[in-house]
Amino acid sequence: MKYTSRYIFITLALKLALAGTATAQVPQGIPYQAVALNAQGQPLSNRSVKVRFSVLDSIASGAAVYVESHTTTTNTLGLFSLNVGMGTATTGTFSSINWGTNSKFLKVDLDTTASGSNYIDLG
Predict the structure, then answer these.
(1) What is the pTM of this model?
(2) Which of 83, 71, 65 is nearest to 110 (CA)?
(3) Which of 31, 41, 47, 104 makes the best surface tag, with the fewest CB within 10 Å?
């Protein structure tokens, strides 16, 4: 069978389109790293803290489509690293967030007492 350049081009274009679609996936988690500081700007070293992430829909004050919390311990510099989407969910499921519709905003709350009742809105 003789292949024309048009046939080869269409076949190649189709394969590239399908390859791009196959690799587009919802993220399993979003890396997040921060330093916890006290009111004086000093790091909260080796301290248990609770972090709450909320994914908000459409606008920065929009409805939460997903909320989760993490309990973690800071290092000597007050640093902690987490993955959004891998905490304890309280609203929705991370995998069901429709990332393709509307803008999404991440709201972060920190509780330096790790009680879960003294969250400070970090934005």
Answers:
(1) 0.77
(2) 71
(3) 41
Beta carbons within 10 angstroms of residue 82's beta carbon? 20
Cα separation, 46 vs 33, in Å, equals 15
The dihedral of CA 74, 79, 85, 90: what is its sign?
A: positive
d(CA 37, CA 45): 9
**Chain segment 7-55, per-residue pLDDT in tens:** 444 544 445 454 554 455 656 899 999 999 998 999 999 999 999 999 9
By C-alpha distance, which of 34, 33, 50, 46 is closest to 87? 50
54 Ramachandran zone, left/alpha/beta (phi>0; psi -120 to 50): beta
Give me the residues paired with residue 53 across strands. Answer: 68, 108
Q: What is the mean pLDDT of residues 55-83?
A: 97
User: Could you tell me which residues come within 8 angstroms of residue 52 by beta carbon, excluding any fewer than 6 positions away?
Assistant: 67, 68, 69, 70, 108, 109, 110, 111, 119
